[in-house]
Amino acid sequence: MQAIKKPVHLLAIAACSLSFGLTACGGDPIWLPPAHKITIQQGNLLSEKQVARIEVGMSQAEVQSLLGAPVSQSPFHENQWDYAYTKGPSGFAIEARRVTLRFDNGVVASISSNADTTTGVIPQKRRWWEILAPQS
């Protein structure tokens, strides 16, 4: 009877030690690849081609057919449409772009954009499994 209890105690101690040891392995274990971080996009994703097609003198209907509905229309600035978007990998600095259109009597009076400024630093380092995926 005594001989049967001893291996059970050793087995229980080994199982507890193993479970405590494995739970202490938080963070990024070196033997596993890091978790995939998805790219998050919010707002109107506009290409430079789309923005270049907008011209002073276009009607609001023409602009909306090219770019879609604006992200925000402020009741304080009824003659201003803002198209904004953010895009970037989760957990890193993101790219943020903004295009503002001002209207006068229902036609585009001015166009402003932050396309020429850097709004975030997106890391260029890619992991081994991302090399095969196309960059957007």
Describe the overall structure.
The structure is a single chain. The protein has 136 residues and is of the alpha+beta class. It has a domain at 39-113: Beta-lactamase Inhibitory Protein, Chain:B, domain 1, CATH 3.30.1450.10. It is 26% helix and 24% strand. The protein is built from three helices and four strands, in the order αβααβββ. It has helices spanning 2-23, 48-52, 60-67; strands at 39-43, 80-89, 95-104, 107-113. The chain is elongated. The termini are far apart.
Gist?
This protein has helices spanning 2-23, 48-52, 60-67; strands spanning 39-43, 80-89, 95-104, 107-113. With 136 residues, the protein is α+β, with helices and mostly antiparallel strands.
Structural class: alpha+beta
**Helix run count:** 3
Which CATH first-tier class of one domain would you pick? Alpha Beta
Query: SSE order in H/E notation?
Result: HEHHEEE
Give keywords.
single chain, 136 residues, alpha+beta, Beta-lactamase Inhibitory Protein, Chain:B, domain 1, four-stranded antiparallel sheet, 3 helices, 26% helix
What's the arrangement of secondary structure elements?
Blueprint: H1 2-23, E1 39-43, H2 48-52, H3 60-67, E2 80-89, E3 95-104, E4 107-113
Antiparallel strand pairs: 1-2, 2-3, 3-4
